[in-house]
């Protein structure tokens, strides 16, 4: 307890020192002192721009890869996810040396760089999306920015605000993009999205102050960055050190692998296989986003208090099994809407797992536990989309023609949709595979102790997770909730 109090005192002193330096003019240009609202605006503008392109991207994807749409979508998202997983620790270590603002600018610029290419060259558009995964870690840099300017007890609320802003941007933008595309054409949507991305870049350049003042950085910008700090597999190697940690990480892997694949391909599946119009896809995203926000706030809080942490995880996994099985066997649009409600309820799983790790690990072992869980999810972001694309490919789930520009399904496509349930027992084979994977996760989660104690050895982790002596790293603490539909629209 004494050691914990000393750490809190040290963190408070460091934060006060930062505020003092900022007040004395030791920070880069910007409007006012660094705040959570700067981070919120950066996130909102970036994902609002991408949300506008939800419907146009689905059409361009099928037009560019008419033969193997789902396979190519899986490969594109898989390469992007793996590159993000590999580059995140290095970018975190570098941001501790060069400051957050420069890396906010870098990540937003490269994440939004593909947007104008949609109408210029679709091939280059998808190629740049894949490569942009090296810098597609805006959320991680934003979480580090927030950690710089908040105390430990404030971060849960701050991270929740950032995640809620992400969800809010996707509630409205796909519908706006679909409407503008129908009335004025997709060209205007691309121009508008590019303008919003440029606005975000200008906002970072002009209005966002540096959260990590130069006086608080290492004495030399030439300070060496060790491989241990940049090693993306450092957290994964610690999984086997404790049986409880191993059970939690296996549960996360088996449950998030199909979730990551689902996020990368599901809206394409609705558009091309289930015959949803662009407006219907946008409405689906909005409803799912709103329901998930309610599930991750009100419902999660009630469940945690009434049935406990472990049972909440089991319940969330149960909802995930049901929704994936329904997606797998469903052949009617109303089934997709009904299963979407279950998908929103299943979003309570990861926050519950994060809370379990946060509450049971020792104060000086939080980075170990949360870093491992985050590392597993990062790996799934690369493997899941590629796996789903491959399963769609081997089961020959493709279309002969995309819906027309008005969002209506052509006659021959309607015939294909009518034959789909008869020609295939399982209309959505990857989703059924995902249900089996989550069932295994549920069986593993049953063996997690009710009150686990994570006996981790944090000695080597501290050096990895706190490069150059900073008390926070690129990875957020466990109380931060993962955004609902991260990169699903890209």
Structural overview:
The chain is mainly alpha-helical. It has 20 helices and no strands. It is globular. α2 runs antiparallel to α10. The protein is 71% helix and 0% strand.
Which features characterize this protein?
mainly alpha, globular, disordered C terminus
Mean pLDDT: 74
Number of E strands? 0
* Major sheet attributes: none
Portion of residues within helices: over 70%
Along the chain, the helix and strand elements come as: HHHHHHHHHHHHHHHHHHHH
Tell me the β content: under 5%
Rough outline = globular
Summarize the structure.
The chain has 490 residues and is mainly alpha-helical. The chain has helices spanning 2-23, 36-52, 54-64, 69-98, 100-112, 117-120, 122-131, 138-149, 152-184, 186-206, 227-230, 243-272, 278-306, 309-329, 333-346, 349-360, 366-394, 411-423, 429-445, 459-465.
């Amino acid at each position: 307890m004494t050691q914990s109090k000393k750490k809190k005192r040290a963190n408070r002193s460091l934060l006060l020192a930062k505020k003092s330096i900022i007040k004395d003019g030791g920070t880069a240009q910007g409007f006012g002192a660094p705040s959570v609202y700067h981070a919120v605006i950066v996130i909102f503008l970036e994902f609002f721009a991408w949300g506008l392109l939800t419907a146009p991207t689905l059409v361009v994807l099928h037009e560019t890869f008419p033969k193997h749409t789902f396979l190519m979508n899986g490969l594109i998202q898989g390469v992007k996810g793996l590159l993000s997983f590999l580059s995140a620790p290095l970018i975190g270590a570098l941001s501790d040396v060069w400051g957050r603002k420069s890396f906010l600018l870098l990540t937003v610029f490269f994440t939004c760089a593909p947007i104008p290419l949609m109408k210029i060259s679709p091939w280059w558009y998808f190629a740049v999306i894949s490569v942009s995964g090296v810098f597609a870690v805006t959320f991680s840099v934003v979480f580090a920015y927030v950690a710089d300017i908040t105390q430990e007890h404030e971060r849960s609320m701050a991270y929740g605000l950032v995640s809620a802003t992400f969800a809010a941007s996707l509630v409205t933008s796909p519908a706006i993009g679909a409407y503008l595309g129908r009335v004025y054409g997709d060209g205007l949507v691309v121009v508008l999205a590019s303008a919003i991305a440029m606005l975000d870049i200008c906002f970072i350049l002009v209005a966002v102050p540096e959260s990590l003042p130069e006086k608080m950085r290492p004495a030399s910008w030439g300070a060496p960055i060790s491989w241990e700090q940049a090693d993306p597999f450092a957290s994964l190697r610690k999984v086997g050190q404790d049986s409880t940690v191993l059970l939690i990480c296996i549960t996360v892997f088996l449950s998030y692998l199909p979730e990551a694949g689902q996020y990368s391909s599901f809206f394409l599946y609705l558009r091309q296989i289930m015959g949803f119009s662009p407006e219907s896809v946008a409405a689906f995203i909005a409803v799912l986003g709103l329901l998930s926000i309610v599930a991750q706030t009100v419902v999660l809080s009630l469940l945690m208090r009434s049935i406990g942490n472990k049972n909440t995880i089991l319940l969330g996994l149960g909802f995930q099994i049901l929704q994936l099985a329904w997606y797998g066997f469903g052949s009617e649009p109303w089934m997709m809407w009904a299963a979407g409600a279950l998908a929103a309820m299943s979003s309570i799983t990861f926050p519950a797992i994060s809370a379990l790790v946060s509450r049971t690990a020792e104060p000086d072992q939080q980075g170990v536990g949360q870093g491992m869980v985050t590392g597993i999810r990062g790996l799934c972001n690369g493997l899941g989309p590629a796996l789903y694309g491959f399963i769609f490919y081997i089961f020959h789930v493709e279309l002969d023609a995309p819906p027309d520009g008005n969002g209506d399904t052509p006659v021959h496509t309607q015939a294909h949709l009518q034959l789909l349930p008869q020609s295939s027992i399982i209309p959505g084979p990857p989703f059924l595979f995902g249900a089996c994977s989550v069932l295994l996760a549920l069986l593993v989660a049953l063996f997690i102790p009710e009150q686990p104690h994570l006996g981790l050895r944090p000695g080597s982790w501290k050096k990895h997770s706190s490069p150059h002596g900073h008390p926070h790293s690129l990875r957020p603490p466990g109380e931060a909730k993962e955004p609902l539909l991260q990169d699903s629209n890209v």
